[in-house]
Design goal:
Length: about 425
């Protein structure tokens, strides 16, 4: 295949997976919003809400290493399409249960576990496939457009979900998700995941080494990458502490501040607006030069935003002012999350060999998420017995201190040696 044809095909991939992600994400976001709101309204307990989050996090943590092995040893296209079909079947099962017996927490938790399993295989494999779908020069654009599609869906889905909640039945939410998932399957089946891939040949689809040997090889490869190891340790602490935000945000706004569902949906949508705006910016600008430096200060800013969530619990703010405050806060959070994540992922895409991407990204995900279930349980319990504002302020303070220590200047210079020759970092060149 000529280079011109490959580049044309890569352009097709850019738009196809963007549209596919937008459609499937829209269904997933509407479903997630409806289920979360349903659990909180029925139980009124942060613990029940946290349990559903654990059902999403724990399977991802346990299965990510296996998903990485599969992504490196078998057809990535087959894995992604198979996972999407399994997602459709899982939602169909919950729909059948809701129509036959009615929704129960057990059925919701079980479905969440299945969806977490399918998203683990799909997510790790898709992340590992980026450099096979597009040329190296457009990796940042591809990842930004992928995030743009998710953001477009996330902007409309929470607002629509908040509006429709109580107007349409839960089966309607599930049906929307099923249709979106099936559409994504059709679009993904037209993509060539090996267009730019540089993988070793696999004889008859059989792995040349055992799964255990393959995983050990992935760990050994990762140990030789000191920058990646630094990111893992930082991620461990960050993901644990952000459990306070993930459990507490919905709990505070819905249970403590009694925000109505429509307005809560708008605040969720504000995050998506922020991610969309930053994704558009990154998709049209040149590649960020110092991703770890940007990531460090972006995470610190996210810690400040996390602490600020507690302000209306400390200071009385009229309802409309409180609503505007959270809109601005979540818009900032969305901007910062993309500013942190996209450059770091682009850096890792270029650092990691194609044959190790699945295992390395799965190990990164496993390590980053390892403490999240514990965090969900701990913070879910704490929010039921300790004033929410003190939990958020304490978590925010610890997060900022940890990042300042673990991503100190010497560590950043190790990742970006050229900073040793630069006294100041110009915003235009960063």
């Amino acid at each position: 295949m000529s280079e011109a044809i490959k580049l044309k095909r890569a352009t097709y991939h850019l738009w196809t997976f963007t549209i596919s992600k937008m459609i499937s994400s829209f269904g997933a976001q509407v479903y997630a919003f409806a289920i979360s709101f349903y659990i909180l309204q029925v139980t009124g307990s942060a613990t029940s809400f946290a349990t559903n989050l654990i059902c999403s996090i724990l399977p991802r943590t346990l299965l990510a290493p296996f998903a990485g092995y599969v992504a490196d040893k078998y057809s990535r296209k087959t894995i992604i399409i198979g996972a999407q079909i399994a997602t459709t079947l899982a939602i169909g099962g919950l729909l059948a249960v809701s129509l036959t017996y009615g929704l129960s927490l057990i059925a919701i938790y079980a479905t969440t576990v299945v969806l977490a399993m399918t998203s683990t295989f799909s997510g790790v494999t898709f992340t590992s496939s980026i450099t096979g779908l597009v040329d190296e020069a457009r990796i940042q654009r591809a990842m930004s457009m992928n995030q743009m599609s998710i953001s477009f869906a996330a902007i409309g889905a929470p607002a629509l979900g908040g509006y429709l909640y109580g107007v349409v039945s839960m089966p309607m939410f599930l049906t929307m998700y099923m249709v979106a998932s099936l559409t994504a399957v059709i679009l993904e089946s037209t993509m060539n995941f090996n267009l730019f891939a540089n993988r070793k040949e696999i004889v008859d689809g059989e792995p040349k080494e055992s799964m255990l040997q393959s995983m050990k090889a992935g760990v050994s490869y990762l140990r030789k990458q000191p920058i990646l190891m630094r990111l893992i340790w930082i991620s461990l602490v960050i993901n644990f502490l952000f459990g306070a935000f993930q459990v507490g945000y919905a709990f505070i706004l819905i249970e403590k501040l009694k925000m109505i569902s429509t307005h809560f949906g708008y605040t969720e949508g504000a995050t998506a607006v922020g991610t969309l705006l930053m994704s558009i910016n990154l998709s049209i600008r040149k590649e960020i030069k110092y991703p770890l430096w940007i990531g460090k200060w972006g995470i610190i800013a996210m810690g400040i935003v996390m602490g600020a969530v507690a302000v209306p619990l400390l200071i009385h703010i009229p309802y409309n002012g409180m609503f505007a405050f959270y809109l601005g806060l979540m818009l900032s959070f969305g901007l910062l999350s993309i500013l942190v994540n996209t450059p770091l992922f682009v850096m890792m895409q270029k650092m990691i060999d194609d044959d190790y991407k699945g295992r390395v990204f799965s190990l990164l995900e496993t390590m980053a998420m390892a403490l999240m279930p514990l965090g969900m349980v701990l913070f879910g319990f704490l929010y039921d017995v300790v004033p929410a504002q003190w939990i958020l302020l304490a978590s925010s303070s610890v997060l900022i201190v940890v990042v300042l220590i673990m991503a100190r200047p010497s560590v950043v210079r190790e990742a970006h040696p050229e900073l040793n020759r630069t006294k100041t970092v110009n915003v235009e060149t960063v």
